[in-house]
Amino acid sequence: MRSYSHDSKHYAKECITRNGRKLSKTKKMRNITKVVRHQESIQEQNLISDVNYLNCMASDGDSSDAEYGRKPNSEMHSVIVKIRVASMNLLAAVCRNLERHVVYGYYYMIFPNDSKDVNYNLIYLAKSDPSTHCRAAALQVGAQILAGSKIYFNQAECSVRRNCINFFPFSQSLGSMINVIYNTLFAILSTEASTFVLTQALKCLSVLVQATPFHKLETGIATGIVSHTRKLICHRDCNIQVAGLMVMEVLVSTSILTTEIVDIIGLPHTDSVPFISNNNQQVNMMSNELNEEGYEEFIETDESQNVYNKYNNNINTSESSWLLQHIIKNMDTDRQQSNVPASIYVKSINVLSALSCHFALLNTHLPTIVKVFQYALEDPLLDVQLNAARCLEKFSYEMSRYISNTSDFNCFKLTQTFWEILLPKLVVLISNSAQQNSAFKNYLCGSLANIGIVIYERLPYISKISLFSTLSGISNNSAENTIVRAAAIRALAVHVAFPSIRKNLVFVENTADMTLQFINDENLSVRVRAFWAMANVSDALVANFYVKERVSFDILTRLIEASKNACYDNDKVRCNAVRALGNFLSILTEDNFDNYVGRKMFNESIKKLAHCITSSSNAKVKWNAYYAVGNIFRNNTIFVVTEIYSDLEWQDSLYTTLCHTIVHHSNFKVRISAAIAIKYIKMRSYFQNYLNLIWSSLLAAVENSQDSVNLEEHEHVDNLQEQLCLAISHIIGISRPEDFPMLQKCLAEKAEIVSYVWLLVSNRMIPEKSVPLISCSIVLYERIKNLNQSTSDHLNAMVYVAKTLSLQEIFPCFNDVNTNFRFEHLPHQTSVIKN
């Protein structure tokens, strides 16, 4: 870099040299400020010249040195490589410390927008930089920036007619960017010789696949992914194979599959997996082209070549997906005998876990898959064991879900055999005290919880006894890790819900008693599982409520106290605790209220429920709390004993909280559950003096039901209005004649909006569900007809309510409240609906 003196003579010489002409000796020197500015501009030009040289040198390699007439300088080249790598690390650090939505605004500068865009960008460097380190660094930084961009890329789309429009929308531009990134990565995978760069390219590709909305883009991307990745999963380098399997794992795990992905991988076309139809002709053509490609470049043995030739012939059949065959080939024998690297073995297990979502593909391979689990669970390497146990937990869940929705007898038989073979192995592994890894046993307990009712009922009796003995033993083993014991309790609680098990009250009580051991554990995860299990036990007790044999009051009191105290715990604990508390209170009998202790416990429990509703910011806690309140209202005994014992003062706090939630809560699902709870109050006397409060709250909730500030709540508006109208119809149906003046007074203030919403909901609901709304006025007019002793105020109020909530096309004869109406004008359907 040149430096210039501020001396005027040197400045004059420099001007002569640079401008190619002499300066007049008599010319006066310029103003010093202008001189400095001129010098700074010259320095900036020289700096730009040097930077351009460095760019050309780094981009064109040795040819740039010859072009610029300079000798190759390996030391300078090394410095430039370090500068590029450091600059990319700086970009990564900046993006890491910025908010994600801020980084999105710079994507058009970091990534190319068009295939003709050859300017310097991250993906261009990954493809064209002469340095291996720079290419790898560019791919690493690109993967980091692309991570978590699914929300942003969901706006992308590619239209075939995009060249026919004058306006190029943002979504099309974003889709074009994704296509260019994919094409550049495909070019890297096709031409790159460095194994390290290939590995980074596959990792970057896997991140991009996770963020891509394939159903909005043109067909061909998935085929390109598979065609390039399928060759590399047979590469001689272990790391490349692992990275290739990672790409296939995330592709199979795509939330919305397209027919292109389904066909190119060989997945089954089932209704249980959402997928979008693409151009099938184009997909089939690309699949055929993929089948005709050779893979001898990366395949080393003739045996593996023959195997893959066999897979290529059946790429579109769900019975023999090439991906499933490949991972089974990696795992169907003992790893130590097959010499498969542990990293490939683990990644193959992960791919199997992803494929388990498509169980229709796997059910015919269960005899082979059960051997895979047997080998993997006994592998000496802990990482293999953990991944196999995690895979088994997910696999068993998907298998149970698939079995519950199918009627294929052969599938039942294969699944039953699967568990009969694997269950003894799992029992031994869980009971093995030498196995100290709690996560491994935790996953195995989760697998046992996922057996499912269909297969459980088909298991031999000895297998059932072995299952429950093992889980009960683990739960009561104080030497075992508490996380494992809690997982065992959770598995027992899952089985408690089975009809054949919940009838065994002794087993239910034992499970409940074991659950109480973990309610005060320091580990939050243990407490969450304990109260989830307790909630399941409470569901079983509610299902057995009408059975003569009842749970002992001592255990029931301990369960209520535990659930009540948990209402101040973490939200993850509280959402299950309030659900259990409501169930336990709903099975109380009149004998339980005979003593003061029982009544005090009930009052405190209701206050804790109300406190959870008002204090918690978690919507799930409040939703479960109102679910619990609804179960409490189902128990008529509670209302009966409330009228008997004056110290049962629970209605004020609960009704007030309920009404406030219906009108003002921001979450519409919570308001819906509160409205549903009101419908479980079956008699007018149960409302006592709170009918006015509840009625006015329902009308106010109808009035502001469309004032949703949050757009996410807008989809729940219809359901909320339906439940509010059903609750209004319920109150009208149980109200006495003397209540109607109050009902009329509140309704008159909001008659227009309530009548409009009532008519809207009646027309929107299906006929089976809209009967209470349609028949409300009919039944009310029938009640008016049958009244013998009522004042005119009562009659006029009842007529007003009936007229306001009637459908005009059904009741054209009632247009004036004060008109003497004739009952013979009532529709003939009145008696039918009433009956």
Structural account:
The chain has a two-stranded parallel sheet. Strand 1 (257-258), helix 14 and strand 2 form a beta-alpha-beta unit. Helices cover 68% and strands 0% of the residues. The N and C termini lie far apart (101 Å). It contains 44 helices and two strands. With 835 residues, the chain is an all-alpha fold.
- Unreliable stretches (pLDDT < 50, length at least 5) are 1-40, 42-71, 277-319, 809-835
What would you call the shape?
globular
Q: What is the tally of beta strands? A: 2
- Rg calc: 37 Å
- The DSSP helix count reads 44
Largest sheet geometry: 2 strands, parallel
Q: Give the N-terminus to C-terminus distance in angstroms.
A: 101 Å
Quaternary state of this entry equals single chain
Class of secondary structure makeup: mainly alpha
**Strand proportion:** under 5%
Sheet with most strands: strand arrangement? 1-2
Instruction: Give the rounded overall mean pLDDT.
Output: 80
Helix content: 55-70%
